[in-house]
Amino acid sequence: MTIKITAQQLSMRFKERVLFHIPELSIGPNDAIYLKGDNGVGKTTLLKILSGLLKPTTGKIAQPTSNWLNRFSMRTGRKDVIYLHQSPYLFDGTVYQNIVYGIRYQKESANGKRAQVITALRMVGLETLADEHISVLSGGEKQRVAMARAWILKPSILLMDEPSASLDHESIDRLVVMAKDLLARGSSLVITSHQTNALTDLCRKQWWIKDTTLVESPLLQVIKDTSQEKTYATSNAN
After folding, report:
1. PROSITE patterns this protein is in (predicted)?
2. Which H or E run contains 222?
3. CA 126 and chain centroid, separation
4. End-to-end CA, the chain
């Protein structure tokens, strides 16, 4: 199922400081959004609000209702919306146990669930580490496990908070494989990153948090405009 969530008059205030006020926004279906902004402008806060992990100071979000099963099956506070932390929260157990945890309540046979986990592990290149304890993994491998755990739930909207920070090219490429698969299924992605990479290259829209509000523009248009500016500057220099 693919969904769309919308928000109106969304704001977040910390004491006297207004972090942001966004008159309206929408995500989905099948969006791919690159969320940008300087440090401290509220990118992570916005993602946590959209996922239901934080309550905004003002505003409301229209989305499918959540229930106790979603919360206890590693879903975020909103149905079909998953927030992927920059520093993944993993359980004290094996790689396999971490990934299968999210689907333990699914009405499917044990063999069927195992097949899903193995598929996820193959996509992130960790099938040989299924029975290893999570503590022996590198930072990049842990991020791949977190992505696999999110992917296996087939979210309608995946909010990725600096997913490529400090990752090598192989780890980023593995995340891209899963991100492309979700987009092909009709899911939406919102990706924050301080630099462009193979993940942000998947995005078709660009959001900027500037001057305490959200500015939206199609990413292809931004690239085109930047190219035109360079051409204009070069011709003027000549």
Report:
1. ABC_TRANSPORTER_1, ABC_TRANSPORTER_2
2. helix 219-237
3. 21
4. 54
Per-residue pLDDT at 234: 38
Is 92 strand, coil or helix? coil
Residue-by-residue DSSP string for 113-133: HHHHHHHHHHHTT-GGGTTSB
Query: For residues 148 and 99, what is the distance between their CA atoms, to the nearest angstrom?
Result: 7
CA distance 224 to 220: 6
H helical segments located in 73-189: 95-100, 110-123, 139-151, 169-184
Looking at residue 230, what is its pLDDT? Answer: 40
User: Which residue type, as a one-letter code, is found at position 202?
Assistant: L
Instruction: Give pTM, 2 decimals.
Output: 0.83
Q: Which residue has the tokens 């930047």?
A: 226
The Cα 223–Cα 203 span in angstroms is: 12
Q: Edge-to-edge strand order for the sheet containing 5-14?
A: 17-27, 5-14, 58-62
| Residue ranges in the chain whose pLDDT is less than 70 | 1, 63-79, 219-238
For position 220, what pLDDT does the model report? 53
For tokens 């011709």, the residue is 235
Alpha-carbon span 189 to 180, nearest angstrom? 10
